[in-house]
Amino acid sequence: GRVSCRFLEKMPKSSPCVSLWLASLASLVVQSVLSSSYTSSSAYQRPGASAKRPGFMERTLILLDVNTRSPIRVLNENFLSLQLDPSIIKDGWLDFLSSKRLVTLARGLSPAFLRFGGKRTDYLQFNNHKNLAKFRGPGPDYYLKNYEDDIVRSDIALDKQKGCKVANHPDIMLELQREKAATTQLVLLKEQLSNIYSNITITARSLDKLYNFADCAGLHLIFGLNALHRNPDNSWNTSSTLSLLKYGAGKKYNISWELGNEPNAYRSMVGRAVNSTQLAQDYTKLRTLLQSVRYYHRAHLYGPNAGRPRKNDAYTPVTYYMDGRVNKVEDFLKTRLLDTLTEQITKVTKVVNTHTPGKKVWLGGLGPAWAGGVSNLSDTYAAGFLWVNTLGMAALQGIDVVLRHSFFDYGYTHLVDQQFNPLPDYWFSLVFKRLVGPRVLAVRVAGLQRKPQPGRVIRDKLRIYAHCTSYYNHNYVRGSITIYIINLHRSRKKIKLAGTLRNNTVHQYLLQPFGPDGLRAKYVQLNGEKLLMMDNETFPELKPKTLRAGRTIAMPPMTIGFYVVKNINAYACRR
């Protein structure tokens, strides 16, 4: 899939200058291990042929310590955030965002941003109508009228609710929607592959549903505005945006805004370029518009984002192509792919630090493969190696926010499927949210071998990251540390906590595939218990396994584990 990096930044309220927005990792990918500056394992060399005897790696003991004095990075509280693509208007799923189960699952990942945007951002037009069937997109004729009537009846019932509007949709209604979506998604995929998109109308009713979903789930909505709506002189046409702002203000919708999606790719999409000077003028115009609508005069404005690097862009992003590289489970274990994003992030942050020091970089559109993912791969346990490593590497390199594409949608890169069931990457995200805070700590690792054979024991296939434990988790006092480990080896790894970490009780959250499919499993077990929603409103208990003080951590092959070092009273995590 394609990984495009964009950067994002909040625009100063009083400044006419355009600031930078997000790193649009518009598809999958991945990144690298602990950089060598934080890993004291450089003294170890790759074992020679004589060292590769059976059991060698199993007899290696890894010593792990964490610098608890001060964090090396402090990230946004909403570091792991979400994205929805405007295609959900076309395929009809936007009408089902009021599902009690979807709202519950999204709330599990709060606090977070919800970016409504993507390639189709620049084909969105706002229409201030409540419920026009002609704006809904295609659907099989034989049931369309009854289906539309069901949607209207559902809307009427929701309107009568106070506060958060949630629904339990009948199974037959959901089945009809899945049929409709399957038909529409073939059209959407064809658009994505051809890079030619049709217009989408978002009605007032659709905006109501989108905002209701975000608000009920505790997510802050960032709405992407159409920057390709142009006047004959190529200046930005603000008519649709002004109508949208006035409607949102009237409803008192607390929304932040973004203008356009990857404007440096416009020439290839529509044969029309928007240079950086014009884009700066457009952002100034949008800031003026926001100030003219009283409710939004202090609203946050993010951008611009971009996808491909250009020599003349002051905010050059990077695009990485890996089309066809992920077509079997083993590909998710390749360290070369895992490490690619590290180089891209380094390039992007260097440009940002050169031109706008202090600006934060966001990564957006992240998911495990381009063009909707790969069936039976991108929605399996194996894809979690990429996702968790992405989070760890992005945090280590100071990326402020990572936006996962998509929370719920077509294809295979989402967190929740069309049966409203959480996929493996959802459970990884939930555990991450529950345990990992925004303060990033430096990790130190070393290896001890039973015999003094020359050998580098850490290598690329064991990735270790450490943060202060999330302050939102009231099961742990401030000062606790969360370590998360990805073992890509085909053998078990033993890790001994050393230095400041030794002699402390550890809570283990070991995530393994559940069922006979191995790494292709679509279910996850936590410490041996299969993770399933109890009902539409109740999560399973994420129950840790207690490891007594001084006990060695044993990481099974090809697994991911989170480990909370309790009551360590780390100075970096107390404040």
TrEMBL record:
One of its GO terms (molecular function) is hydrolase activity, acting on glycosyl bonds. One of its GO terms (cellular component) is extracellular space. Residues 1-31 form the signal peptide. Keywords: Signal. SUPFAM superfamilies: (Trans)glycosidases. It comes from the Eukaryota. InterPro entries: GH, Glyco_hydro_79. One of its GO terms (biological process) is extracellular matrix organization. Pfam families: Glyco_hydro_79n. PANTHER family: HEPARANASE (PTHR46145), INACTIVE HEPARANASE-2 (PTHR46145:SF1). Belongs to the glycosyl hydrolase 79 family. This is Heparanase 2. It comes from Labrus bergylta.
